[in-house]
Amino acid sequence: MRRLPPGFAALDPPEGGWPPTRGRFRPERLEAPVETLPGVGPTLAKRLAKLGLERVGDLLSHRPRRYEEPAPQRRIAELSLAPPGGDEEALIEGEILKTSSRHGRGRLRILTAQVADASGQISATWFNQPWLQEKLVPGTRVRLRGTTNRYGFQVRSFDLNGGGATADYAPVYPASEEISAAKVRELVTNALAHVRDYPDPLPVSVKLERGLPSKSDALFALHAPRSLAEAEEGRRRLAFDELLVLQLALARQNAEREQAVAAALPEPGELIDRYRAALPFTLTEHQESAIAELDADLARTTPMQRLLQGDVGSGKTVVALYALLRAVEAGRQGALMAPTETLAEQHFLTIEGICAQLGVSCALVTGSARSPDAALADVVVGTHALIQQGFELRDLAVAVVDEQHRFGVEQRSALAEGRSPHVLHMTATPIPRTLALTVYGDLAVSEIAKPPASRKPIVTAWVTDERSSEAYTRLRAHLAEGRQAYVVCPLIEESATSPARAAEQEADQLRGGELKGFRVGCMHGRLKPAARRELMASFKARELDVLVATTVIEVGVDVPNATIMIVQEADRFGLAQLHQLRGRVGRGAEQSYCLLISRAKEELTESATERLTALVASTDGFELAERDLEIRGGGQLLGARQSGLSDLRFARITKDLGLLEAARDAARSLPVETMTAEVDALLGGAEHLGAS
Ligand code: ADP
Ligand code: MG
In angstroms, rounded to a whole number, what is the distance separating the alpha carbons of residues 458 and 590? Predict the structure, then answer.
C-alpha cells in the first residue's frame, strides 16, 4: 500500500480504538440532518438544501472547487508599501478596531473593517456578506487573506479567533448567493468530526492492490489537505469508488439485457420513402450515418441499445421519428418518451404534423392528457405516464427515450420490461465517443457531430443591466423584420412569488414598455396543457411576435423564425441551461442572436463570470461541456439532473480515463455482489425527472 504522507498516521485510531466518548463507528451520524451541526438553524438548512446539502454526510462529500495556494504572510505596514496595481495575494493577521457597512451599486453591500497589527492598520472590505458585521466585533482576532487595492484590503477568505485552516490550501467550495464559500467551509470543518463514521465499502484487496487510502483518510485529505498532492490523492480514491460502482452497475445491467430478445424488423420500405420525400430538406451526412447504424440494429433480434448524441439543434428529432416509423412500417408501434410534459407536448406538435401527412396515427400520453385510444396509436408520444401502471401499449417495437440522462436507469429499463423493444436514447449532452462507450457500457453511440450546413453560429453578447434597453432595441429590430423572439425570465426565489407569476408580470411590463405594440405571449409551467399547446401553436403560426417564458422553453421548442433571445439575469442560470436555452434560436438559415443580461460585473460570482464568458466565446456544446466541468470542478456533465453520470462528484471523466479503466478492470475481477448497496442506490435511487 502506498504510504500516506506523514501526519496521516495521526488520523488512524489509537491502539485499542477511539476513546468511548467519541463513540464507535456510527454511520447513522452521516444520515443526520445538517441541523444537528452547531450553528445550523432552519434558514441555513434550507439554503444548504438548495446546494444538495441536507445531511452531515453530504457536507463531507461536497467537493471543493479548488484550493487556495498559500499566500505570503505580511505585516500591514508592508502591504501599504506594495506597488500600486499589483494584486498579489497576502495573508495578514490582526485585530478588528471597528466596522461599518454601506450599500454599493445595485444590490452590492460593502462591509468595511479597520484591522490593526503592531505595524499599522488598514481597512478591509467584504462584499455581500452583511451578516459578518455582528461577528467582527472590535477586539476579534482575524487572519485575512486577500489582495490590496487602492481602497484597502479586499478579503477573499478569513479566520476568526483562530478557527479553521484558511491560509494553507484552504478548500474553496461551490457556494450559492445565499451561502458564502467561507460558511460552507466552516460547516464542512464541523462535519469532519464525523469523518471516521464513514463506512469504507471498498474491498481491502482492491485498496491494497491499487494503493488507495481508506475512505476517511481520503475525505480528510480532500477537506483539510496539507499539500495539493494530498488533496489529489484523496480525490482519486473517492473518484475510484464512484467509477467502480458505475462499472459494477453497468455489468449488472448488461447481464440482464443479454437475456432479452427483440423482433427483427424488415428492411425500410414504402412508408420510409414517403417520410424522406415529405421532409423539406435532405438529411445531412451525419443523420444518414446515424440512420444506417440504427437500421443495422433493428435488423437484429438483440434489442437495440443505442445512444443518439448531438448538440441542440443538430437534427436528432428527424432521426428519432425515422426509428419510430420503422416500427410502424412493420405493423407495430413506436413510442417516444420525454422527461417533461412540455417537452412531450413539443415533440407531439412536431411529430403529429408529419404523421398526419403520412397517414400514421399519433397520440399524446402525459399525466394530464391522453388522446382517446392512445394505446392503439401507431406512434405514441408521452412522459413517464407511458410506463406507468394502467397503460399498456398494443405492440411496442421501437422506443425512443429523449434526454435519457433525465430518467433514472430504472425507468429506462421499465419501458423495456417484458417487451424488449429496440431502444434509442437521445441526448444533447455531448461526451466524447470513446468515453461514452466506457461509461455507458454496451450502449452503442451514434453521433450527429455537425448541424445542417445551412446553419450560422448564434452570435452571443453579454451586457449588464444598465444596457438592457439596447438589447431590447436590437430585439425590436428583428421583430420589425418579421422575425420572432424569446425573452427568458429570471429565476426567482421560491419565497418571493411563483415563477409563473413572475413571468406573467414580466410579460405585462414588457407589453406596456419595451415591447409596446407587439404581440407578446407568456409561457410557463403553470399553464394548463391545452393552453400551453395552443400558445406554442400560435407562436409557431406567427400569431405572436414574442414569447416571454420561464425555462420551460429550455428543451424541444422548435420555431426556426425565432432569431433572437434575451435572457434576463443570465448570471443566475447554469452553463448547460443557458446553452440549451440558446439552442431555441439559430434553428433556421437566418443569423440568430442571444443576448445575455446580467447584474454589474463586480457583483457577479467568479463562476458566473466564467460561465457567461464561456458562453460568449463558444457555441460548441462539446467545448462548453468541458468548460462546465472545469468551472464546476466536479464530475457533473451538462445538466444537474442526470443520473448515473451526474452522480460522479469526484471523477472527472474527461481526465480520469486511467482511473476509469482501473475501475473497469477491478469490476471485472470482483464478485458480482461487490458493493451491492452502492450499486442498488445508483440503479434505484437515480430518479431525477426534469422539473417542468
Ligand atoms: P435537436 O432535436 O437535435 O435539437 P431538431 O431535430 O429539433 O434538433 O432539429 C432542429 C431544426 O433543424 C428543426 O427545425 C429541423 O426541422 C431542422 N433540421 C433537421 N435536420 C435538418 C437538415 N438535414 N437540414 C435542414 N434543417 C434540418
Ligand atoms: Mg429536438
Answer: 9
Any ligand 1 atom below 6 A from CB of 587: yes
Which ligand is closest in space to the CA of residue 560?
Answer: 1
Q: Could you tell me the pLDDT band of residue 442, with boundaries at 50, 70 and 90?
A: low
List C-alpha distances in Å: 8 to 204, 224, 407. 18, 11, 41
Q: Which residues surround ligand 2, an ion (CB under 5 A)?
A: 317
| Domains detected in the chain | 1-63+179-226 (no CATH), 71-167 (2.40.50.140), 270-448 (3.40.50.300), 459-618 (3.40.50.300)
- Give the closest ligand to the alpha carbon of residue 321: 1
Q: Is this prediction's pTM over 0.85? A: no
Cα atoms found within 13 Å of the Cα of residue 176, Cβ hemisphere only = 13
The torsion angles phi and psi of 110, rounded to 5 degrees, stand at -115, 125
Q: Is pLDDT above 90 for 264?
A: yes
Q: Which listed ligand is nearest to 313 at the C-alpha?
A: 1
Closest CA to 249 of 653, 664, 662: 664
- Count Cβ atoms below 10 Å from residue 515 Cβ, excluding itself: 21
Q: Is 354 in the pocket of ligand 1 (CB under 6 A)?
A: no
Residue 624, C-beta contacts closer than 8 angstroms, at least 6 positions apart: 575, 576, 579, 614, 615, 618, 638
Angstrom distances, CA of residue 198 to CA of 57, 65, 205, 574, 682 = 8, 22, 19, 31, 18
What pairs with residue 396 in β-bridges?
A: 333
Ligand 1 contacts CB of residue 558 (under 6 A): yes
pLDDT in tens, 550-601: 877 766 678 899 999 999 999 988 888 888 889 899 988 889 999 999 999 8
Residue 564 · residue 592 · CB < 8 Å: yes
Pocket test for ligand 1, best of 275, 276, 281 (most atoms within 8 A of CB): 281
| Residue 317 Cβ < 6 Å to ligand 1 | yes
Ligand nearest to the CA of 283: 1
Hey, what amino acid is at 632? R
| Residue 285 Cα to ligand 1 middle (Å) | 13
Atom of ligand 1 nearest to the CA of 314: 3
C-alpha cell at position 449: 457531430
Of 288, 308, 317, best ligand 1 pocket probe by most atoms within 8 Å of the beta carbon: 317
Work out which ligand 1 atom sits closest to the CA atom of 560. 14
Handedness of CA 389, 391, 395, 400 (dihedral sign): negative
In ligand 1, the atom with minimum distance to the C-alpha of 312 is 4
* Residue 556 Cβ < 6 Å to ligand 1: no
- The Cα–Cα gap between 45 and 309 comes to 38
Q: Which of 282, 289, 318 to mutate to test the pocket of ligand 1 (most atoms within 8 A of CB)?
A: 318
Q: What is the 3-state secondary structure (H, E, C) of 446-497?
A: EEECCCCCCCCCCEEEEEEHHHHHHHHHHHHHHHHCCCEEEEECCCCCCCCC
Contact 500, 525 (CB under 8 A): yes
Distance in angstroms (rounded) separating the CA atoms of residues 226 and 323: 55
Q: Is the CB of 18 under 6 A from ligand 1?
A: no
